[in-house]
Design a protein that fits this description.
TerC family protein, Integral_membrane_TerC, mainly alpha, single chain, two-stranded antiparallel sheet
Length: 344
Amino acid sequence: MDVPLSAWLIVFGVIAAMLAVDLFAHRTAHVIGVREAAAWSVLWVLVAIGFGVGIWVVAGAEFGQQYFAGYLIEKSLSVDNVFVWAIIFSAFAVPRQYQHRVLFLGVVGALVLRGGFIAAGAILIETFSWVLYVFAAFLIYTGYRMIRQRNEHVHPEKSPVLRVFRRFVPMTDAFHEQRLLIRRGGVLLATPLLAVLVLVEVTDVVFAVDSIPAIFAVTSEPFIVFAANAFAILGLRAMYFLLADLMHRFVYLKIGLALVLVWVGVKMLLLDLFYVPTTVSLLVVATIIAASVILSLLATRGQGRRAVAAESAGAFRTATEEELDALEPLWAGGSRRSPRRRSR
């Protein structure tokens, strides 16, 4: 597939435009409800489908199918990301109105990091074709491990990343609205929101180790791999607010995701012996995910929404009005925050 520079510029332009729209729409911190999350989820999916249709029309059906297969794989595997985010937010008791800003910055960081991973993976495959077999074995093993550990959960409060962060970065115990850093007594301090952002970025790196090799199983085109990843990631924030309180109902989803990893691993392993059409891969992945979701919902029917519970990562609170008014300029030369007019 000969990808012109203009195609890359279109992708980056669409991503930048959608991020700008999202940031403008959420410029004021507020709790995102189910209806708003559903509307944004539909928008992100429509944008992703529209882009895939464009690839189909311009580059042909095969590349269009590769994009949709990659997008479906990435979107499916990202559901695990959503569950981990919910646990992190619960452990830090992050107020719901501040969660979108963390996820927005996390998604921007994920796009940059995954772009680097994809470039590195493409170079490795181009230079050492046998690395595909390493990817295949890794995916099969990861799927097997996911099935065995399907009932285990992450524990943010025990994360070595959090321990290192707390050791080397001075941190306050209070959320100061959406700020990541504050200055108090002349000392620059991180807020708990920055620690949460670091954990979100680290978890995305961990999940990228699985998902990116999985997409390379259906296409070797870096442009398609990046586009599928990008558009799947862009919709993750809306997916989180839509599904976070329903994660307890997806009891068989992790098994479905594990089977997807095993499937793409086997497909990659047999690449030189037996070619599996992209259409078949797309149907297999869609069937596995649909079956796991339907069976999960049937098994848990009657259960309502409930927040994810997690062990506390510390005693965190929301800064008082007096603390916010007393904030010092973050950078030298900045102006002191003007006091708020309190309602009586």
